[in-house]
Task: inverse folding
């Protein structure tokens, strides 16, 4: 059975801090790993990672994949209150159309 | 931009009622999904469809059915709503090619069953 595990499940930081969110996976025939941000509404796509060791970056957010150790991290530098959200990690299952999701990390950024 | 529209943002129903949740996407995607999201459990797949009139069970299909009569529309049906189906329901679609497994989500329907 495919598994995606995120840690921590929740995190409270002050504005300006840097945070690292973790995602480990056990997925048959791994193809990709995706990160989403969910505020009050729909999860919105952040990154899709397929190659090990190549960092994807978008503003203050960056993510990297380690296919040998089977994990990914999402870094957010200089956090702002607008970064408060649930961050979801997911990976496609073997031979199917499904994404297996982790339970998410709830990030709260306080002023 | 891809738009996935769920018909209701909030819905309150009574136990035993038949409930329809509607989802429409405007990007001609082949694949559509219904997830439910509960605190501490994350997103769990209920059903998905990879073509018109085709459907596959996800991880938690019990108590639900689906309908896909047109490519753009995917409906989730609760035949007889129960209190344990109180949840946030998210619809998603994707073209699902070898190079694009990104899901596009709707805004969700928060269903309360009393």
Result:
């Amino acid at each position: 059975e495919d598994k995606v595990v995120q840690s921590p499940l929740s995190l409270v930081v002050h504005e300006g801090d840097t945070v690292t969110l973790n995602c480990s996976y056990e997925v048959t025939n791994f193809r990709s790993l995706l990160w989403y941000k969910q505020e009050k509404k729909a999860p919105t796509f952040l990154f899709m990672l397929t190659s090990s060791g190549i960092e994807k970056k978008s503003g203050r957010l960056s993510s990297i994949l380690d296919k040998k150790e089977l994990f990914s991290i999402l870094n957010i530098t200089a956090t702002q209150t607008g970064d408060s959200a649930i961050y979801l990690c997911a990976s496609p299952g073997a031979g199917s159309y499904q994404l297996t999701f982790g339970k998410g990390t709830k990030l709260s950024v306080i002023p | 931009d891809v738009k996935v529209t769920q018909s209701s943002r909030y819905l309150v129903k009574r136990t035993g009622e038949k409930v329809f949740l509607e989802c429409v996407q405007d990007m001609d995607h082949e694949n559509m999904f219904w997830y439910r999201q509960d605190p501490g459990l994350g997103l769990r797949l209920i059903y998905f469809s990879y073509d018109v009139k085709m459907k596959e069970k996800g991880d938690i299909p019990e108590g639900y059915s689906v309908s896909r009569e047109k490519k753009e529309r995917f409906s989730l049906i609760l035949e007889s709503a129960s209190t344990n189906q109180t949840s946030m329901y998210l619809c998603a679609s994707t073209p699902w090619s070898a190079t694009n497994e990104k899901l596009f989500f709707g805004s969700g329907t928060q269903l309360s069953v009393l």
